[in-house]
Amino acid sequence: MLMHSLTYFQVMPEFLDLLFPLGERTVAQDFYSDGFYQRIHLSNAAQGLSIPERAWSGRGIKLCYSLKSVEPSESQTDWPWSIRHCATHHTFDVMNIRSTWVVVKGNQLIEERVTSATSGRGPPEFSSYDSIDRAFAASLALHTVLIDWSAENWRWYINFLEDQFENLTKEAISIDANLPTQVMDMGDIVFPVSRTNTQISSKAPRLFRTSARRSNTMQSGIELQPVPPQQYHVNPRSGKRQPLPPGRSIVTADTARGPTVQYDTYGQRQFGFRHLQDIQDLEESTNQTVLVLKLNLSVCQQISSFYRSLLDNKELPSAIADQCQDDIFRFERKIQAVRSQTSAQILRSEALLRLIADRKTLLYGLLEFQNTKSNKLLASASQKSTRKMEIMTNEMREIARKTKTETVSMKIITLVTLFFLPGTFIATLMSTDIVHWTNDKKRYESGALQVYLAICVPFMATTFIVWAVFQWLEKRKERLKNEQARASLE
C-alpha cells in the first residue's frame, strides 16, 4: 500500500531515507538522519514524468525534508516529554497549479493543524488557490506550519531538563564534607528502580524513547511443577533486553523499596553511584536536544535558501517571480525568527551541558572524598578490632597456660589415686562381714556377699544409665545446633 501511494504521488526516492527512522522498535535507528532534498523540473529539458490523465505535467518543484519537535507524553510519568519525528514531501506543479503534500508522523497533530488552517477559518493565504502565485504562497504558508511545530515546546522541555538537573545535583554544592562520615547500610546502597514499567512497549531508554513510542506511523513419579515463563528486563540506559534471574520479577512502583533520596543524621543528602548514572542519563538527553535543534536549524536554512534561489531561476513562471517576492521575503523572515529562537535554545542547552559536566565532576570528587573518609573510618575500626583481637589472644594464651598447669596437677592426682585404688578396694572388702579373720581362723559368709552384690550392682547400673542419658541429650543438643547453623547459611 505504501509503495503504491508513493508511486502514485511521484514521491522522490530520497523520501524513503526520511521514513526509515519511523516505526515501532526498542532502540532507535537512523534517528538523527534528518535531511533536505530537492528537485527542480521547470524547463522542458529537465521536465519530469508527465501523466495527463493524472493531471501531472512533469514541470514543477519537489522537495522533502524531516523535522523533529518535542511533545508532552502522558504515558510516561517519570519523563513526560518525547521527541517526535515528522517527514514531509511537497510537490508543486506550475502548469496545472497543483500542490501535493505527503506528511508522515506518529500522531494526528500536524493533520489537525493543516486541516484547521485550510478549512476556511484560518488565514486566507492557506486556502487561496485562485492563481498560481496565490497557490505558491499557500504552499509557503503550509511550510511555516511545520517549521513552527519544530520550534515549539523546546523552551519548556529545556526548563524540565534544568529542573531535573537542579533536583539531582543542587544539594551536592552545600554538602559539608568535613562532617564525620557514616557508613551506609547494605539496604541503603541498593537504590530502588523509580520507573513505573520496564517493558519494551512502554519503557524504552530516554535517549531512544521517541521511536519506541510510535505504534503506527502510516495509515493502514516426581510431580513436575510447571515452568514459569521467562521474564525479561530492558536496561533503561543501554536498551538491552536481558532475562531476569530465577525468582526475580520486574520491579514496579508498587514493589520498589523505599525512597530514592536518602539523608544522613546531619540532614545532608547521601549520594551514590546511581546518582552519577542519572546525571549521565540527563547529559545524554541534553546532548540529544542540542543535536536535534542543530539538525532543525540546518533544515530550515536549506528550505529558506532553496526558495530564495528559485527567484534567480529563469524558468520560473513570471507570475511567481513577480508576485511572490514579498511572500518569499516574509517566509524568509519567519524562518529567520524560528532559527533565532532555535539558536537561543541551543545556547541554553550547551550551557546546561557545561553545568552538568562541572556538577558531575564535583559529585564524582565528592564521592571519591567520601570514599576516602569511609576507608579511613573502616581502617580505624579494623585497627581497633585488631587490638581487641590481640588482647583476646593474650587472654587465651594465659588461659592455655593455666589449663596446662591444671592438667599436670590432675595427672599427678590421677596417678596417686590409681596407686592407692587397689589397696582401698581390698581394705574396703576386708572391713565387711563377708570375710572374718579371728585367732588365725578364716570365716567366709556367702550371705553377706549376696547382700553386698544385690545392693552394689543396681546402684552401679543406675549410675551408668544416668550417665548415658546425659550423654545422649548433650549430643542431640549439639546436633540440632549444627543443623540450624547450616540452614541459616543456605
Characterise the protein shown here.
The chain has 490 residues and is α+β, with helices and mostly antiparallel strands. The chain contains eleven helices and ten strands. The chain has helices at residues 2-8, 15-19, 109-118, 132-151, 154-173, 186-189, 209-212, 273-310, 318-323, 325-430, 446-489, and strands at 36-41, 60-72, 81-93, 98-105, 232-234, 241-243, 262-263, 269-270, 435-438, 441-444. Strands 1-2-3-4 form a four-stranded antiparallel sheet. Strand 9 (435-438) and strand 10 form a beta hairpin. The longest helix has 106 residues, at 325-430. It starts with a helix and ends with a helix. Residues 185-227 and 245-259 have low confidence and may be disordered.
Radius of gyration: 45 Å
Q: Beta-strand level of the residues, as a percent range? A: 5-15%
Residues in helix, %: 40-55%
Task: Provide the succession of SSEs.
Answer: HHEEEEHHHHHEEEEHHHEEH
Distance between the termini: 61 Å
Biggest sheet, strands in spatial order?
1-2-3-4
Topology, number of strands: 10
Rounded mean pLDDT is 78
Largest sheet: 4 strands, antiparallel
Pairing-aware structural class of the strands and helices?
Answer: alpha+beta
The residue ranges in which pLDDT falls below 50 over 5 or more consecutive positions are 185-227, 245-259
Shape by Cα distribution? rod-shaped
Topology (SSEs and partners):
Elements lengths: L1 H7 L6 H5 L16 E6 L18 E13 L8 E13 L4 E8 L3 H10 L13 H20 L2 H20 L12 H4 L19 H4 L19 E3 L6 E3 L18 E2 L5 E2 L2 H38 L7 H6 L1 H106 L4 E4 L2 E4 L1 H44 L1
Antiparallel strand pairs: 1-2, 2-3, 3-4, 5-6, 7-8, 9-10
Helix pairs in contact: 3-4, 4-10, 5-8, 5-10, 8-10
